[in-house]
Amino acid sequence: MSRRKTPTIVAALAGALATVCALLLGLPTAQAHGLAIMPGSRTYLCYQDGLTGTGALTPTNPACQAAVAQGGTTPLYNWFAVLDSNAGGRGQGYVPDGTLCSAGNKSPYDFAAYNAPRDDWPKTHLTSGATIELDYSNWAAHPGEFRVYLTKQGWSPTTPLAWADLSLVSTVVNPPQVGSPGTDGGHYYWSQALPSGRSGAALMFIQWVRSDSQENFFSCSDLVFDGGHGEVTGIHQPTSSASPSPSTGTSPSASPSTGTSPSPSASASPSTSPSASPSTSASPSPSSSGTMPSSGCMATYSVVSSWGGGFQGSVQVMNHNSTPISSWTLKWQTGAGTTITNLWNGALTVSGSDVTVKNVAYNGTIGADSSTTFGFTANSSGNNFPTGSITCTAS
């Protein structure tokens, strides 16, 4: 499984700033921190969604935007601190229904907005009955156990989360960890079996019970059981100033740029490091974005490398159907100042900021639960990601 590589300098500065602010405001400083980063919790994915090159947090997801409007950005800079210093392993009967995602509103930071019952939080797409690697931030490492709950089939994300909605699926004691505490990428990890026979929306709730303190941490991750493999949707969406509608591709291209022949670097893919876990489930890096349409065709977009004025991107086109597809078309909008200069293993059409990539003759057919990849290089002023989700259609 690919290990996450996230902007640790920004997070470290944010953590240090939060500690200073806590001292100045007389707030208690927590000694341990962490929550799920795969599947990503609400605060973690909203934090990832909001990251900008300036260090400001400006989420594009509507649920994340509403949470920031209600509680400000301080909770997101402290995404790892959804805690109750005195929980002592207590759950049902102690943490009120409707407040599970905010640690019963007992954290030194106001996470109440992340309890909002709505269906547009960022989501992680998974497959019922599969085994995933569950990653839980070790922002500060301590011994203890992780109690993993999953909502029951039929739960609606538009209703407040209650203890009666949850079933305990596993308890993990002192799992291994990788990476340095106090960084975005450091985390505990273990293989987590998902129940079979599940479909539709779900929520994974994890209570981290420290064995050396009364402090507990609470994590809510929104899921969809639709045949996915850890893809995240609902982040890096179009802003209000951008058109959310992708190009229909019916008008002539304004650019003659195409790239249908393989490049020597066509096999390039995002850099990965060996997993320390025996799990073989795929986990996308937070430096990628993807969509999972109901058709089963989806794509994930990753920045392979970047340099002053440009970058190399890689897009993996996946077929999660039970039967092969024979052709595919992707559409997205580039960030301001981004222009694709060369593309291989796909047929490119550009109209303004609208990008359309279709398969070429040799990679249109994708087998069931298989994928193909194309790559490109682009000039950029720093906006290396699409302004919204990538749409994928297939036949």
Automatic annotation (TrEMBL):
Example GO molecular function: monooxygenase activity
Positions with biased composition (Low complexity): 238-294
Chain positions covered by the region annotation Disordered: 231-294
Residues making up the signal peptide according to the UniProt record: 1-32
InterPro entries according to UniProt: CBD2, CBM2/CBM3_carb-bd_dom_sf, CBM2_carb-bd_dom_sf, Cellulose/chitin-bd_N, GlcNAc_Chitin_IntDeg, Ig_E-set
CDD domains tied to this protein: LPMO_AA10 (cd21177)
Pfam family, one: LPMO_10
Keyword Oxidoreductase: yes
Domain CBM2: 290-395
Full protein name: Lytic polysaccharide monooxygenase
Organism of derivation: Kitasatospora phosalacinea
